[in-house]
Amino acid sequence: MIGCKPSTTPMIPRAHLHQDNNNPFDDPPAYRRLIGRLIYLTNTRPDITFCVNQLAQFMACPTSFHHTAAMKVLRYLKATPALGLFFPTHSVVQLKAYSDSDWASCPDTRRSVSGYCIYLGKSLVSWKSKKQRTVSRSSYEAEYRALTLTTCHITWLNYILEDLQYKHFMPTLLYCDNQSAIYLASNPVFHERTKHIEIHCHTIKEKCSQGLIKLLPILTHLQLADALTKTLGPAIYKNIHTKLGLLSICAPTCVGRGIKIK
Question: What are the helix and strand counts (H, E) for the chain?
């Protein structure tokens, strides 16, 4: 893929991979090796976390369509070879998190996708994209499951800070773009529509009462965790790179050589 055409996005915008009826890929072990390398790369490239998570779900029986989607990720990496996480030396040491979900996005199981990114000051230190274990019956239920996943990880990070003998007094700012989820966290009045997610509601409410987190609203177009729950357009990807803490240490190899980015 050294001579491939670069791509501005790792996946087609708003595309959802599924178990299709295309021809099975003729070399499944090669597909698994490629996905394994991409999983390793997500340790420093949060921008490909969602698409790699999607591709890894078809390692048992990959098709030619899944292989083509994996090749697009390589084309995206060709366009951004020097992109990596930047950790500034001076910033306020406070945890800040963004939580989001994409409701019923899996065409095969109708399960939602949870995504979060957590910052320590201005540095992105933790991120995840994961399919939820059960089917959510509403969008705010999916958001609450994502909030619970994020809150559990925030709790774990606070334990790490304590082990490092750093007393973290300020609450973690947790941003969510679902008003229903935020309202339910502030006013946990349970009824038939919310009884099945009562445990998740109590988890968020308890951490808010303890002062561990502070739940705040955020506009959808400012939600950084969007990149971990769905594919986005080229303009949004370019805008979100710096917000995720990704910077290029040098100019991409394709610039100035007459290679058209498609």
Answer: 7, 7
Distance of CA 79 to the CA centre of its chain: 21
> pTM of this prediction?
0.86
14-69 residue pLDDT tens: 778 888 777 899 999 999 999 999 999 999 999 999 999 999 999 999 999 999 99
Among 112, 223, 119, 231, CA closest to 178: 223
Residue carrying structure tokens 């946990």: 188
**Helical segments of the chain, H only:** 28-41, 49-56, 64-79, 139-163, 179-186, 198-209, 234-243
Neighbouring-strand partners of residue 214: 173
Dist. CA 223–CA 154, nearest whole Å: 18
According to DSSP, the residues that pair with 124 across neighbouring strands are 119
Token pair recorded at residue 68: 């083509």
CB 224 within 8 A of CB 244: yes
Q: How many CA atoms lie within 13 A of 212 on its CB side?
A: 18
| CB 117, CB 225: distance < 8 Å | yes
Q: Domain residue spans in the chain?
A: 1-84+248-262, 95-224
CATH level 2 (architecture), domain 95-224 = 2-Layer Sandwich (3.30)
Note the pLDDT tens digit of each residue in 184-225.
Answer: 776 666 544 565 566 666 778 788 888 889 989 998 888 889
